[in-house]
Amino acid sequence: MGKAKIRWAREPKKKDFDAAAAYLCLVFPERRARRLVARLKRASTVQMKPKDLERASGETLLPSDDPVVSSKPRKSVRKDPLTPVLLVRGDVAAGRPLLIADGYHRICASYHVDRDAPIPCRIVDVDGAQP
């Protein structure tokens, strides 16, 4: 992927919160997952670097030629800006310090375009405490 810029929206969309809920219901009881999503809706948007999100989550980056990953920068310029990613800060002792509730492909795309360029994120703590 070249050094194209990625345009970012200021706010997540309903579909982003729905996707986060679907994912979080797989790793938490449904009630807890719904509470996390409710908190994500109220959370402030912060800027984080994709290289740090990749490291903190422990997720393996998809390659730049993945069809979904490679489409994100083009989509952000031609159609709609990409929406902020939704994250749940976990428990290092439990072996999962950060969950990407929604936005994995956006993080991968951003990493391949510019791993140091801040991207908008909403983060809540898994235990309910806020930074």
Task: Describe the structure in your own words.
This protein is an alpha+beta fold and 131 residues long. The protein has a single domain (14-124), classed as Alpha-Beta Complex (Conserved hypothetical protein from pyrococcus furiosus pfu- 392566-001, ParB domain), CATH 3.90.1530. It contains 5 helices and 4 strands. The protein has helices spanning 14-27, 30-42, 50-57, 67-78, 104-114, and strands at residues 45-48, 85-91, 96-102, 119-125. It has a 4-stranded mixed β-sheet, sandwiched between helices. The longest helix is centred in the first third of the chain and has 14 residues, at 14-27. The protein is globular. The model has no long low-confidence stretch (mean pLDDT 91).
- Structural class designation: alpha+beta
Q: Main sheet?
A: 4 strands, mixed
At CATH level 3, the topology is Conserved hypothetical protein from pyrococcus furiosus pfu- 392566-001, ParB domain
CATH architecture: Alpha-Beta Complex
Query: What's the number of extended β-strand segments?
Result: 4
How much strand?
A: 15-25%
The rounded distance between the terminal residues' Cα atoms is 34 Å
CATH class: Alpha Beta
Number of helices: 5
Helix content: 40-55%
What strand line-up does the widest sheet have? 1-4-2-3
Please sum up the structure shown:
By secondary structure, the protein is of the alpha+beta class. The protein has helices at 14-27, 30-42, 50-57, 67-78, 104-114; strands spanning 45-48, 85-91, 96-102, 119-125.
What topology emerges from the helices and strands here?
Layout: H1 14-27, H2 30-42, E1 45-48, H3 50-57, H4 67-78, E2 85-91, E3 96-102, H5 104-114, E4 119-125
Parallel strand pairs: 2-4
Antiparallel strand pairs: 1-4, 2-3
Helix pairs in contact: 1-2, 3-5, 4-5
